[in-house]
Amino acid sequence: xxxxxxxxxxxxxxxxxxxxxxxxxxxxxxxxxxxxxxxxxxxxxxxxxxxxxxxxxxxxxxxxxxxxxxxxxxxxxxxxxxxxxxxxxxxxxxxxxxxxxxxxxxxxxxxxxxxxxxxxxxxxxxxxxxxxxxxxxxxxxxxxxxxxxxxxxxxxxxxxxxxxxxxxxxxxxxxxxxxxxxxxxxxxxxxxxxxxxxxxxxxxxxxxxxxxxxxxxxxxxxxxxxxxxxxxxxxxxxxxxxxxxxxxxxxxxxxxxxxxxxxxxxxxxxxxxxxxxxxxxxxxxxxxxxxxxxxxxxxxxxxxxxxxxxxxxxxxxxxxxxxxxxxxxxxxxxxxxxxxxxxxxxxxxxxxxxxxxxxxxxxxxxxxxxxxxxxxxxxxxxxxxxxxxxxxxxxxxxxxxxxxxxxxxxxxxxxxxxxxxxxxxxxxxxxxxxxxxxxxxxxxxxxxxxxxxxxxxxxxxxxxxxxxxxxxxxxxxxxxxxxxxxxxxxxxxxxxxxxxxxxxxxxxxxxxxxxxxxxxxxxxxxxxxxxxxxxxxxxxxxxxxxxxxxxxxxxxxxxxxxxx
Length: 564
What we know:
Layout: E1 10-14, H1 21-37, E2 48-53, H2 60-64, E3 65-67, E4 74-76, H3 78-88, E5 94-100, H4 105-108, H5 112-115, E6 120-122, E7 128-130, E8 135-141, H6 149-152, E9 156-159, H7 167-179, H8 184-208, H9 217-237, H10 251-267, H11 276-288, E10 305-308, E11 314-317, H12 341-355, E12 360-363, H13 370-381, E13 392-398, H14 405-414, E14 417-420, E15 423-425, E16 432-438, H15 452-463, E17 465-467, E18 474-477, E19 480-486, H16 498-501, E20 505-508, H17 514-531, H18 536-539, H19 542-559
Parallel strand pairs: 1-8, 1-9, 2-5, 5-8, 12-19, 12-20, 13-16, 15-18, 16-19
Antiparallel strand pairs: 3-4, 6-7, 10-11, 14-15, 17-18
Helix pairs in contact: 7-8, 7-9, 8-10, 8-11, 9-10, 9-12, 12-13, 14-15, 17-19
């Protein structure tokens, strides 16, 4: 592929998400550049420049160029602009263009003349761009189902299976990069925790449990690493963990804290994506596993507590930190949030991930409070750091079947600040920008199976940037995290590509139990009656009114079934 003679001009990397496609050619490019800069005399090696784009995140006109129907003026496209600039380059440096997105006949057939011996890009305005031997085309996709035989015969195809790269190399890289300063014994102990539990946990998850949104093995282990990092660095910054213990006589105390943090991270990643019916099975399995059998979770199940770093990492029930509710008579009813066990623990997990710019995907059936949990936490995190917040800037998006990628990009760009020509970031002194997308799986699916708004978001979260659609240059987005919320596919909601969802920590929020519903609405109604000074006799009726309302709701849900 990288030789300049007698090879195919294009190659297609095909396979499921997390198979290692992207990292493979990135490492190849870095290696070729490093060998050349180190003085290698082999002409095979040279400086490589990568240009990545997602062809399905923009329209065909924006990709190759188009005529304006009113003025008959030609507007250049992103791919044609990049290729024209490379064709004019007179150096021997390699130029690789990566089309990272679903393959369909709408856009890839236009490259057939590029991929054959002509090596020429033909545009609709009659322009012909002759490409140079130093240039290469890379396609990266899940499958070639929509590609024609004419295209497939012109490219080399390399298939990446899920067995190509397993989870262990990813964990080893993270562990050494993050904790090498604490010594080899610390790293070996932490790696031992992974090796003793991950394979068993993944096997049990795939065989016995059900997930509303399917996850990938590497996705779950990456989420575990991110959550553990956040717990660790958060503990260090708060002064609860003394890293000097790693080199002293109290190393055993530090390793015990590591075990507690790892156990918590394991439960909320390997066991966090399954639905509520599967959690009892996971709890029984995890409680009996050799690695976690001696850990006191201090609750009825493994989800009921968290490691309190102020108390030596011991597990403390969530119920001890559920905030009290104060009724605000001036607030809208829909802005009132009554803290519960679920809102407390999912807010905790979300905040920890945002602290290290991690991405989170909340799922669960309608009415579980996904939007409320995220919105409430983001509102609290907007406050300055000296007031207990994180100086967060949020961008909230609501998807529908009619959502288009241009509309989404314009909304995001309008709410970001231009730090430099090629850099966007949170406005002012804000420390983090959080893009919250509600009902993310609502956009309509095109004829060939792609969802342009989803492909745009995948480019943003994967590449940490976006192309300017007018001036056609790349702009990085600094200090960014993304949060998604959606119900499972069905009822107008579509399945989203795993190449997108695999970049998130997936958490399934269970439905509220009847006693939780009673507690929420009784608290609200009691606060309302008390704030407006209703009589004591009327206030005493609040519990009965709420219980009766919930009974009516359950009766309606059971007997008046929805029909198409």
